[in-house]
Amino acid sequence: MNEPFFHIGILVRDVEAARADFTAKLGVEFEPVHSQQIATGETTRFCYSLQGPPYLELCEMTGSGSWSPEQPEGFHHIGVSDQDMAGRCALFGNEVDLIAPGDNGVPRVVLTRPEALHGVRVEYFDEKVAEMFQGYLRTRTAS
Fold it and tell me: Which of 2, 11, 5 is nearest to 124 (CA)?
């Protein structure tokens, strides 16, 4: 089952410390920390909660853009599945940052800029990518 709103991104200075704090103080368990390079060339370090949806994503600050230490620590974005990525990008006046490219110029994942929606970023996932990703999220363990 594909959830339209499936995760909440939280920007943190140290992902391992945040993972330990969220577990100790909120009782939320997380998968191990992962690293991945995104379309901007930045390498992100992150982990997702085992409980959800919505899942909590802890994202370590990196680079000089949307994920940088210049951003405040705390709420960063809402992760959403979308059937029409081209339409969604157009709706936001193309005020989006590419996270993962796709076929035919239509991105697989984008992040809206905060000024496009009252200070809230939205990370839009192509519906097929979101479905595969949510399948992964449902099958993880803490080890």
Answer: 5
Beta pairing class for 96-100 and 55-60: unpaired
- Give the model's confidence band at 99: pLDDT under 50 very low, under 70 low, under 90 confident, else very high: confident
Edge-to-edge order in the sheet of strand 109-112: 34-37, 43-48, 55-60, 5-12, 74-82, 121-126, 109-112, 96-100
Q: For the chain, how are helix, strand and coil distributed in percent, rounded to 5?
A: 25, 35, 40
Beta-strand relationship, 34-37 and 55-60: unpaired
Task: Give the pLDDT confidence score for residue 66 in this predicted structure.
Answer: 87
Radius of gyration of the chain from Cα atoms?
15
Please report the pLDDT score of residue 143 as a whole number: 55
